[in-house]
Structure formats: C-alpha cells, structure tokens
Design brief:
elongated, 3 strands, mainly alpha, about 100 residues
Length: about 100
C-alpha cells in the first residue's frame, strides 16, 4: 500500500536526471556529512540565500534583527518580487568587518 507521496517519489529506470538534480544532490550530501561529522553549521555551496537560510546561519536571529541589518545597510540584499536574497560573501564580509555581534 503506497501513499500518494511515495508514488510520486518513485525512481524509474528510464527517468532522466539533470545536472541541476545532481548539483542539488551533491549539496544535500555535503550538508548531511558536515552535520554528521559534528560541524556547527552546514556549509552552504549556494551563493544566494533566502531569509530563512540567513536567519538559521546567523544562529536563529529574529526576523526583526535581520530587518534592522538590511535597513541600516549592514547587510546588503537583493529583492526579486517578494523574495529577498542575500549574497553569502556579503554575510562573510559583515562578520569580518565586525559589524554584527549576535549577542547584542
């Protein structure tokens, strides 16, 4: 007795796999290995991160704190439609410049 979700997730012998599928699979495996090996935070291979990913990366900061970082120019962002993206290099730069202390 398969549920509808299990039927959708079945893999067939003649199923096509794209390069994007393989890249996503690679990222998921690397993240899982990092978590299992005791790494504090999974290292993302993505350049652009969504709000929830940035909040998680910054130790679970509040949405309001992230809004403050955007509003005061501490953390640059790009908005496409209603989705806000952050460049991972900008987040790293923010830490290197000492502009953010999660214990503030």
């Amino acid at each position: 007795m398969d549920s509808a979700g299990e039927k959708r997730n079945r893999i067939y012998r003649d199923q096509l796999i794209t390069v994007g599928d393989l890249e996503q699979f690679k990222k998921e495996i690397l993240d899982a290995i990092n978590v299992l090996s005791g790494g504090n935070k999974a290292v993302s291979t993505k350049m652009w991160l969504k709000t929830w990913e940035v909040r998680k990366m910054l130790g679970g900061i509040s949405a309001g704190k992230l809004l403050t970082l955007r509003s005061n120019g501490t953390l640059p962002f790009t908005r496409i439609g209603s989705v806000i993206y952050y460049d991972q290099d900008d987040i790293q730069r923010m830490f290197e410049e000492g502009k953010f202390n999660k214990h503030e």
